[in-house]
């Protein structure tokens, strides 16, 4: 038995990293290579947003390529409805199955979903536009599927930047896939571990602060498991108009978003009522690396005052 002085096996633990203008362009390149002219469908979660400014980061590439698609049901708690996903795999020829690790969190059915996709002969694309750090730092996603996409500008102070990662051979795609942007390595300029820790800390602190608003503002997912690095903290606005509260918060300078306040029109209310119900209540609070404890205090006070005003 021999041991070489240094590692030399070039395809062991290989994660091929390709660069794009943004995550959606990387997703598009992956879809093109995975389909390579074949007919079949993309399986997508029935919770995908659209805005007039940004379009839809997930759905636009599918629409632009004119691909057939089918949605699997998400519960009102934004978890994969595995029974419905299994039906989708049975009833359709799925070539690419997409799992979205929303807001940096990983679905409890992640493993089952990937297994069902592989049983059906599909490749899995993990959308990590929000969860690059749960992958790279947390190590809890991004490896069970064949590929994943990152959106650098959603987690780092950058204007753009998308990455497509092919795990080992990327499921042996029938066509070549290549970078479409220059890698200037800007992400190496940041301490990703420190950023991840700070985001987790902020989410923990904010969750505790929000306890006094329980029943008015509830955490979508009360437990933040090890490895999760939140992009934002998702909460549910229970008793007042989320849209009006959103306006109040942004007027006061708190950078709130609602992912997603509007779902793509292909996700119909009658067919996916739980998705639409959630989309009316969800609000995503900032926990990014620039945010301080004092600012979070101010944010919670502003939420409390805003709710009280809207109720009066
Ligand atoms: C879940 C998800 N995936 C992908 C994208 C696309 O990211 P990008 O803006 O980098 O193309 C977005 C945002 O638009 C998103 O929210």
- CA distance, first residue to last residue: 78 Å
From the 3D structure, determine the CATH topology of the largest domain.
Answer: Aspartate Aminotransferase, domain 2
Overall pLDDT: 96
CATH class of the largest domain: Alpha Beta
Class derived from helix and strand content: alpha/beta
Defining key terms:
alpha/beta; Aspartate Aminotransferase, domain 1; 3-stranded antiparallel sheet; binds pyridoxal-5'-phosphate
Task: Please write out the topology.
Blueprint: E1 15-20, H1 23-35, E2 41-45, H2 59-64, E3 68-72, H3 82-91, E4 94-100, H4 110-119, E5 123-128, H5 132-136, E6 147-151, E7 162-167, H6 192-209, E8 217-219, E9 232-237, H7 242-251, H8 273-281, E10 282-286, H9 293-311
Parallel strand pairs: 2-3, 2-4, 4-5, 5-6
Antiparallel strand pairs: 1-7, 6-7, 8-9, 9-10
Helix pairs in contact: 3-4, 6-9, 7-9
Summarize it.
The chain has 312 residues and is an alpha/beta fold. The protein has helices at 23-35, 59-64, 82-91, 110-119, 132-136, 192-209, 242-251, 273-281, 293-311; strands spanning 15-20, 41-45, 68-72, 94-100, 123-128, 147-151, 162-167, 217-219, 232-237, 282-286.
Describe the structure.
The protein is of the alpha/beta class and 312 residues long. The chain has two domains: 15-187, Aspartate Aminotransferase, domain 2; 192-311, Aspartate Aminotransferase, domain 1 (Alpha-Beta Complex). The chain has nine helices and ten strands. The chain has a seven-stranded mixed β-sheet with strand order 1-7-6-5-4-2-3, with helices on both faces. A three-stranded antiparallel β-sheet has the order 8-9-10. The longest helix is centred in the last third of the chain and has 19 residues, at 293-311. The N and C termini lie far apart (78 Å). The model has no long low-confidence stretch (mean pLDDT 96). Bound molecules: pyridoxal-5'-phosphate.
